[in-house]
């Protein structure tokens, strides 16, 4: 199946009142300052009328908590991701719980139900699970928290 975003086609998401589409670029720290990150940013910035929020920017330097990253996810229209580190997984699950568009940079396709289930299984196994769930609950409303909990139970709908 051909992606809607392949070969120079324009991605048009929920553009805000000012005509700007905010994209969150979720990726591993291991990709920071690499050719892969540069290529991904070039691709994401090619959409026009878009702002790409990159966690490898100065505004995030020195941040140890996931809070500023999750708040940035909440302010975006869509999230594009590469990789399966716990940070990326938490950002992806947060975006899904907040009803954001989530797209893989590998396939240029929306995240599949199988991937969502895989991400939820991996997230449930990490050592900071309880504190991350509490952080999510404290940051977002009960509707988002219920959806986040549902995603962790394995129901991606």
Strand coverage percent: 5-15%
Major sheet characteristics: 4 strands, parallel
In the CATH hierarchy, the third-tier topology is known as Rossmann fold
By DSSP, the count of extended strands is 4
Query: What count of domains describes the coordinates?
Result: 1
Specify the CATH architecture. Answer: 3-Layer(aba) Sandwich
Helical amount: 40-55%
Indicate the radius of gyration in whole angstroms: 15 Å
So what's the oligomer here?
single chain
Number of helical regions: 6
Please provide the ordered H/E string of secondary-structure elements. Answer: EHEHEHEHHH
- Secondary-structure-based class equals alpha/beta
Estimate the mean pLDDT confidence. Answer: 88
Low-confidence stretches: 1-14
Task: Name the CATH class.
Answer: Alpha Beta
**What strand order characterises the main sheet?**
2-1-3-4
Our measurement of the CA-to-CA distance between the termini, rounded to an integer number of angstroms, reads 22 Å
Tell me, briefly, the overall form.
globular
Q: Can you characterise this structure?
A:
This protein is of the alpha/beta class. The chain has a single domain (21-153), classed as 3-Layer(aba) Sandwich (Rossmann fold). The chain is built from six helices and four strands, in the order E-H-E-H-E-H-E-H-H-H. It has helices at residues 35-45, 67-74, 86-97, 113-124, 129-139, 142-153; strands at 21-27, 50-53, 78-82, 101-104. The longest helix is centred in the middle third of the chain and has 12 residues, at 86-97.
Features of the shown structure:
single chain, 157 residues, alpha/beta, Rossmann fold, four-stranded parallel beta sheet, 6 helices, globular
């Amino acid at each position: 199946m051909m992606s809607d975003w392949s070969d120079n086609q324009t991605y048009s998401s929920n553009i805000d009142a000012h005509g700007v589409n905010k994209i969150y670029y979720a990726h591993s720290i291991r990709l920071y300052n690499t050719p892969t990150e540069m290529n991904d940013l070039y691709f994401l910035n090619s959409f026009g009328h878009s702002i790409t929020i990159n966690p490898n920017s100065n505004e995030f330097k020195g941040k140890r908590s996931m809070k500023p990253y999750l708040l940035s996810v909440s302010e975006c229209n869509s999230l594009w991701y590469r990789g399966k580190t716990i940070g990326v997984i938490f950002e992806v699950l947060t975006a899904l719980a907040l009803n954001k568009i989530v797209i893989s940079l590998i396939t240029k396709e929306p995240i599949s139900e199988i991937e969502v289930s895989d991400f939820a299984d991996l997230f449930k196994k990490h050592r900071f699970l309880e504190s991350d769930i509490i952080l999510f609950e404290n940051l977002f409303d009960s509707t988002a928290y219920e959806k986040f909990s549902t995603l962790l139970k394995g129901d991606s709908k």
